[in-house]
Amino acid sequence: MADVILETRDLTKEFKGFTAVSNVNLKVQRGHIHALIGPNGAGKTTCFNLLTKFLVPSSGHILFNGKDITGARPAQIARMGVIRSFQISAVFPHLSVLENVRIGLQRRLGTSFHFWRSERSLESLNGRAMELLAEVGLEGYADVLTADLPYGRKRALEIATTLAMEPELMLLDEPTQGMGHEDVHRVTELIKKVSAGRTILMVEHNMNVVSGICDRISVLQRGALLAEGSYAEVARNPQVMEAYMGTTDAELQGAHG
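The chain above was modelled as a monomer; its predicted structure follows.
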């Protein structure tokens, strides 16, 4: 039996009669990079908001490491190790790159962020902060003001601040959105690198990214799970091709190259 880290059972969310997520049964295996894809309006973001407790399900259950977390609050699941990147770990533009990572590391000093502590008391975190910056290729940017970082490097910093919170499960929401080809490649390689020993669930539109690094893919359409499997299996599925209106078999298969 595969080791399932995150599972949803009949997860459903309705907004005033409109069903945004409908009876979704998702199983994310430990150590996998798992993608949630689907056409616009498929319910991907709503699903992410349910998983990270920013929305309350209308019905159904969410289990993390076998424990029902359906009623947990966002801060509680973050402490359990479910960390959503690119939203809750937004960077502080007027702090340096190093200072941003250090804020993520302060979680280990206690239950709250110690903004009132003196600068000197946080210097003990600098070594680990630099290790994390090295992991995402930002060691040369430690003293740079975050506002001055190029867009793709900001995304790398967001991954570093997420790693600082020691996630067991990272949820990445559109990690390559709005990037040029070079940045997409860099961030894709970075996700692949930091996935070692971790589990990643990501929402992603770029099929080149999905085909290149994901172990398993779940396809949503109109809030329901349409198909699941490897990229090759999903790309051959006639229902998936139909869901991506105008996307031919050649285009889906070609994204793999």
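The chain is about 35% helix and 25% strand.
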